[in-house]
């Protein structure tokens, strides 16, 4: 009888976690990007870039986090020390996903310091390559803990240039484009008449009120807000078995508890000004 | 040909308070730490430091030797925020010229090329322009008419860099994956002091390595210092990686305590103090 039945079917995979929706939303940043460098800062953007490379964006270039360009299996295929990385930025063949200690409605980003620049309350990394990045290649942002501390009305020091400031310099900003902002609550873009931030999709389990409560300005909210797309079975297997078998993604974005809203908070966590923005330079 | 070998203390004896000092490496990678320790011993201060900042900046700032820093960032890499630099900024202990990374690189290139500035498409629209009111722009003289930032040359009185190997004449070789901006620091400086893990005969340099590893040319070098483990505790690939436990100790110890235990004597005393610390932990 057993012979006729064959082996038992594998158990269905566990449903996607919040961290896995974030990986998918980050991966989508590089859909259709072609043969350019994907520069992800942070764990979940890195998983997203590698997932994109393994699936729908096979021509992407990736680094080892230092000076080498590597294939999906880690094979060295090129040399990209910091100075060449900066040359590549100015050539435009790159889409960077940076962190942000502060981000405003027009996508101005701060990773330099909090408070008055002359004598900051909190000194952070410094502007790094954010000014050159935002004037030269498409830029997106990743915020692992969406809070009013990060999403602010005005940033204290403009490092990455937002749409309002780009509009004031049409010549210098002719290559300026902020594609998307991915947070642990949803995806945002700037597809509005004044290029201010718009809620583009909510991760499953998040509602609009939760996003508004955790955002220090009022983003545009369409009448019908889509849901961040589901990962395919193959994508889930790649994330879980190939890219992050140790499950480190859950440390960057923990699974929200049954009492939803905990993740939204009002920004008591230090995430916004902490090391989340590490490695936001051109090359790191 | 001139034999340029000297000790770290001899090299640093040629520096003066008030100088503009470029320091090679990047973050907590291949920093000329033995030379930085010699600067700390020598009591030189009032410095303008130009650096892709790491613990070099943290230590010099903590010791009160920096009047002004020129940088795009300061980080210890595995410890994202440099604690002593942060303390110095938050207490208003130093002035800062905060530049974008590309502006920093273009500024070094301008100095190396003896140009007053180079145009770069970076900075416009950002607060780098607000916090550097002296920055000027330049308009393309061609039909496009685009406006760029004219990054002023980052001219240096002296440069300090650390490489893997060098010969006695000052040809410096890096064997790791990234040259950082070390050759540009040397070319942008009136005098450059290169420390290395090991001094070898010139012929030895390319016996097992490709000629493009010869990063620093002797025509840009004033002094060569043999400093084994001279980047410690930063990394010096492939000779050694970063000493992460010791970096954590540096980052978590109040500066006076750290300086007293590890920086009270010469480089031999430093190594002995680090060994004693390591034995204590094992």
Automatic annotation (TrEMBL), chain B:
A Pfam family of this chain: CoA_trans
Q: Which UniProt keywords apply?
A: Transferase
Spell out the InterPro entries in the cross-references.
Answer: CoA_trans_fam_I, NagB/RpiA_transferase-like
Query: Could you tell me the superkingdom of the organism this chain comes from?
Result: Bacteria
Q: Which GO terms describe its molecular function?
A: CoA-transferase activity
Q: Which PANTHER family match?
A: KETOACID-COENZYME A TRANSFERASE, SUCCINYL-COA:3-KETOACID COENZYME A TRANSFERASE SUBUNIT B-RELATED
Name this polypeptide is given: Acyl CoA--acetate/3-ketoacid CoA transferase subunit alpha
Give the organism, scientific name: Streptomyces mangrovisoli
Lineage of source species: Bacteria, Bacillati, Actinomycetota, Actinomycetes, Kitasatosporales
